[in-house]
């Protein structure tokens, strides 16, 4: 059992829960009265228990636990009771609006087992707030984020044997929310399904914590202003796989997404991006692109900004960065490190960027760049309970 | 029974079937040897038959016929045999890549019953070619479009009683292709499902053939260069519903999608757009935006271009149009008509555009603008078999 950790004052990038109440009104529901309640959860236990997998060399997100959470919504009846049931296939109408029009969104969270045996989540209310923002953009109904978090806590508690006894593995939590409108008009769905599945995971990349190589080309654009790049909606991801395949064909692991005529640096694959350098004005700076509508507001991104601002050791900026800035800084030996951040990978150093036929090599100091390594340790120490923090939420 | 109508020489906007063979190679399959074959189709008949609905006031795509087509693919075993089975829910793994990452695409076609009782499709190989192009962009496997068309023909033949006896109704055909990868890595799916469902439909808009009102605002952007706007992928549609709701709140029926600093006119809701006017040079012109990567290559769009070019009565252009162009032309009384085109609506006149707080009224001559009406008649006469044409394909 646990209560929701109070969000620090700096948690302002996600919309407030109050703001999201607007959609409830739009959907003709009273505010939080209309949400499902965790206390109503109906639990149907699995008859047997599956064997736990060996996490060494296990591909990300391929094995699932014994149970899942499902919550149905209809425009006529509102939210139904949450159900925890055995992990099983979903029965989906062939005209389902998630399959035809990508009325869908997801979140990514992890449950970590500490050396003390306790299971913790990391800043989960930020995921709930971002999920509500995505739901509004996807024209899906709103709900009380604290109630969903409590449902997720119950689910993880039930399947807690699946949280690995390891400080390099965790239980990945995938809340998913899809429109299940059973008709072909392109419109706000009258039915929806929120479900949560759990998957024990090791490292996201098959290369482990080694620096990743990136392909940067303006041919494919991940997101644009007026689109959905700042929400965790399915359409952002499916559209990226084609470019990702081209990156692999060119000998790179991930895509570095560029934007605009000036080839702004935006994100990496499915991660936010940080550049640690001596900037144009000679200042030591950790920089990441600002949340201007095309950047996913990552929770690891936000945590890195907050941690490093608290350190006060160098300038920390949300600012635009272009490939020309990077290339010039590399020529002038001003780049210290570059790394991606995300729930799946935590912190992942960048070693090489293929851009306009040229390989740009980023300093990595024997695969362990100091700032990325320090941030990885500070974050995982909080996540695994080595460092007490109000960012953790006990299951 | 019927053979595929030879594609006219002007059918060049869709990629050739040969070009799509590239992905077969990418997926490690031999060219067309790897496609499913219509001759292998296994048919499981429905036990009963559902009652046919009254099409008056029936919402678009809400009722489905007795049977559906499903074809499964795995990277290990390639395409399985096509199955025609009773219309029923799909059993979908909760980690399915279509539900999480919108690895999905669709097509829209119609079967029309002529006064002669025969059932016809309209230029269906163009749908097959566009579907193959979408599949490549979505990282889904390729197949032989002629084989899928023959499977669809079999399905429509089986459910032919559902093709309405009416020249204002038809049987809407929805081929859908989704990734069914049962794991959470963002990657090319190792499993996929192609399915086709059929729905008897009347008019797409609840207002029937009356002119539609549009909301034009650069706040939301449908598609951008380097994205997926020229493919019929689900993500393009789910992202549009939010803007559509805002249009309705502002008293308009659809969104007029703008692009760029100069507010280029691109598409309307889920339709391509045409402007019939006296252009800046005093020429009578039918204009529609060019296929530059952000425009869906509509089959009705292509057919209207081909028909009007054959008439030779006025200039027919694929060119950029901005809101400033339109506003000036309206002030100078140079706009004759504006209309949307698409499979669902065929031709749909535009009556009003709300732009920057101002209502722009488009001439509609008592709801029946002459060019839109003439095109609607020419197209439906072909579709319903009143005019013989190599654009029709007999079921």
From TrEMBL, chains A, B:
GO terms for molecular function: branched-chain-amino-acid transaminase activity. Belongs to the class-IV pyridoxal-phosphate-dependent aminotransferase family. The keyword Electron transport does not apply. The lineage of its organism: Eukaryota, Metazoa, Chordata, Craniata, Vertebrata. It catalyses: L-isoleucine + 2-oxoglutarate = (S)-3-methyl-2-oxopentanoate + L-glutamate; L-leucine + 2-oxoglutarate = 4-methyl-2-oxopentanoate + L-glutamate; L-valine + 2-oxoglutarate = 3-methyl-2-oxobutanoate + L-glutamate. GO terms for biological process: L-leucine biosynthetic process; L-valine biosynthetic process; lipid metabolic process. The keyword Isomerase does not apply. This is Branched-chain-amino-acid aminotransferase. It holds the Pfam family Aminotran_4.
